[in-house]
């Protein structure tokens, strides 16, 4: 639900992406230092500066809201509205010059994602969704495509190495039955699902800044997204994600997981 003006929230999300995009473009395919975070994942000045400008705008316009970002500390998480930010989802793609990463901006109300934006600043592609308002790609309405069975499906994951032992078993069972399997892409693969080019994305170990924005986008485009237990995606989800364009293939995969 959106208690305040939906238009105002959407406008602000667009402005946040408009502000961070030029920073990311300025660094893309240029020499820059890549640091390692404590978990071994890469981080760059582009990640940090993009999140900094988003936070500065939110501090000025929505000072009472919470912020849950990837690069800096969380703040005010007991607020009704929390902005969940990943300045560059897919940093490995970014540092290798592959334009299949994205900026993720989500708005969560009482733990429920209600707005989601994916911005690809190099290709100038933007997916936007708000609860009850549908989903768009560069302003045009988008929908998932029909896919009745797993044998008809194009499925993707960022990397099978990111699954734990149980997750790898689930992934192998599902992937072996699919029509085509693709790897890499992070949030970009979910965007392609919402646009009708991919049928299933299956991942685990994600953080709220990885999945809150995509949850709204997939659902508002007509798809289904849950955790691996079949629960709705919330700020407190465990990071196991199954996104499907067609509820029939979602049910089929859930049966494999439950077995």
Account of the protein in words:
- By secondary structure, the protein is an alpha+beta fold.
- It has two domains: 6-141, Fructose-1,6-Bisphosphatase, subunit A, domain 1 (Fructose-1,6-Bisphosphatase, Chain A, domain 1, 2-Layer Sandwich), CATH 3.30.540.10; 150-258, D-Maltodextrin-Binding Protein, domain 2.
- Helices cover 34% and strands 26% of the residues.
- The chain contains seven helices and 14 strands.
- It has helices at residues 6-27, 45-61, 91-95, 165-175, 187-195, 208-220, 247-258, and strands spanning 34-36, 42-44, 66-69, 81-89, 102-109, 112-120, 125-130, 134-137, 140-141, 154-157, 180-183, 200-203, 224-226, 241-244.
- Strands 3-4-5-6-7-8-9 form a seven-stranded mixed sheet, sandwiched between helices.
- Helix 1 runs antiparallel to helix 2 and helix 5 (187-195) packs parallel to helix 6.
- The model has no long low-confidence stretch (mean pLDDT 94).
CATH architecture descriptor of the largest domain: 2-Layer Sandwich
Task: Give the overall shape, derived from the CA principal axes.
Answer: globular
Count, helices: 7
Superfamily at the CATH H level of the largest domain? Fructose-1,6-Bisphosphatase, subunit A, domain 1
Per DSSP E runs of 2 or more residues, the count of β-strands stands at 14
Summarize the structure.
This protein is α+β, with helices and mostly antiparallel strands and 259 residues long. It contains 7 helices and 14 strands.
Topology summary:
Layout lengths: L5 H22 L6 E3 L5 E3 H17 L4 E4 L11 E9 L1 H5 L6 E8 L2 E9 L4 E6 L3 E4 L2 E2 L12 E4 L7 H11 L4 E4 L3 H9 L4 E4 L4 H13 L3 E3 L14 E4 L2 H12 L1
Helix pairs in contact: 1-2, 5-6
């Amino acid at each position: 639900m959106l208690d305040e003006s939906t238009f105002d929230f959407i406008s602000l999300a667009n402005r946040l992406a408009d502000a961070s995009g030029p920073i990311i473009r300025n660094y893309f395919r240029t020499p820059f230092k890549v640091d390692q975070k404590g978990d071994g994942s890469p981080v760059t000045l582009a990640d940090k500066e993009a999140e900094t400008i988003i936070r500065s705008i939110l501090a000025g316009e929505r000072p009472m809201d919470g912020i849950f970002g990837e690069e800096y500390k969380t703040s005010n998480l007991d607020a009704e509205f929390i902005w969940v930010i990943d300045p560059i989802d897919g940093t490995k793609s970014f540092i290798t010059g592959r334009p299949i990463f994205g900026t993720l901006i989500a708005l969560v109300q009482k733990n429920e994602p209600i707005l989601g934006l994916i911005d690809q600043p190099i290709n100038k592609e933007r997916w936007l969704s708000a609860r009850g308002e549908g989903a768009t790609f560069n302003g045009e309405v988008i929908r998932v495509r029909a896919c009745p069975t797993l044998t008809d499906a194009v499925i993707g994951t960022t990397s099978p190495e990111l699954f734990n032992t149980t997750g790898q078993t689930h992934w192998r069972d599902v992937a072996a039955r699919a029509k085509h399997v693709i790897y890499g892409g992070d949030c970009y693969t979910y965007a392609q699902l919402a646009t009708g080019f991919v049928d299933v994305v299956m991942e685990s170990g994600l953080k709220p800044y990885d999945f809150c924005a995509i949850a709204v986008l997939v659902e508002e485009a007509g798809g289904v997204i849950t955790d691996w237990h079949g629960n709705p995606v919330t700020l407190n989800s465990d990071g196991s994600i199954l996104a499907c364009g067609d509820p029939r293939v979602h049910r089929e995969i859930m049966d494999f997981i439950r077995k």
